[in-house]
């Protein structure tokens, strides 16, 4: 199928051609005709599948036929979990609609609300928003939904993970009942199906990302290494392989900051992107990374969700995520649109549980390769399955050495928590708990009603992370599930 077969408005077809797209991706060829007809859609599609154009193009097609939004009106609302994703979707909306006389806007927390209110005065044919800020703006009468035609929930699974369910329910109550609904999620979990029940009407279900599969165009391998030696190994790999644009995942915000300092001290240009950074700092880090000014971008899982860079060649898991699905999301950042990418994980003995969970989820054993000079003292235990033994090779072809007893005489297995820096899984507890109970996990904060935030901070976490925008926090109990926030 070609894009021209879809019958999009000529202005949109032109914009698509200017992007260099000729063929719609599977999600696009399935979703676009349904959305153009005004139908509801429930789609399982991850970032990297072209889902944004899958809903943006047909929405623009429909909206271009109607009357433009007047002051404070919104005709289509796209909700996203994070500011990065909101900015990214907005960029897409802008480029696809560049030949149409339409006006769009984006709003998210962590930045001043007034400029957003000013812009909304002109109305928005499409408004891209994070939930908390949207509610604030609505409560301040900056947005009218009386002419709303369509609602998109983008990355709905992540919205639920981040505790947005109450905000979403509030938003659904203030929208007109008669509207088109599009729900995009990486997976159709039972929670997503429950949400969909009250949202989409007789939807066309599309599934382009079968759960738990990792893209075939991504080469995955792992390097067993002691925890304390991970920064040195990363620097070594960057230099030896000449990685010019690598996205490095860190489970924690502090870990990301620390790693950037360590890389910089070795004269490798790096920047961190996570929820404790101001929006401006995040935007700058991303722009510098895209332009090549910064070689290595260190990101937490949630902050990375909005990063959209074509054909990112290299993804590194500096540590493994606690939630195995995040591994799939992480490596999905490379090998897009048929391009070949590589995902490398640095794995220490104490991460064996995470590794086993990931391999179970993706139903395959990740190739192991020890790097000469970085062979671990604390051996990474076998992860089971058929590839278990014998899957571990050393780069120089030598057989794996015996566990060394140099440091603790224990023979290594299960000794990971005591390794090197003394920050094994247990040692990381303070960092790990920093995130999920913290309101910054939501990628934005509300500007009202939030001075006392002890509820939302039930892990006793610091809350000074994201003050750049001068806004406060909304308190809300929430399921602490993940180790890290953005
Ligand atoms: P998304 O899944 O929406 O984040 O899109 C992932 C990437 O695919 C973005 O960089 C898009 O610019 C790109 N893309 C979207 N549609 C197409 C297409 N039909 N052909 C080639 N690339 C595309």
Description:
The protein has 486 residues and is of the alpha/beta class. It folds into 2 domains: 3-207, Rossmann fold, CATH 3.40.50; 218-394, 3-Layer(aba) Sandwich (Rossmann fold). It is built from 16 helices and 15 strands. An 8-stranded parallel β-sheet has the order 10-11-9-12-13-8-14-15, sandwiched between helices. Strands 3-4-2-5-6-1-7 form a 7-stranded parallel β-sheet, with helices on both faces. The longest helix is centred in the first third of the chain and has 15 residues, at 51-65. The chain starts with 9 loop residues before the first helix and ends in a 50-residue tail after the last helix. Bound molecules: adenosine monophosphate (AMP). Residues 21, 23-25, 28, 47-53, 308, 310, 336-337 line the site of adenosine monophosphate.
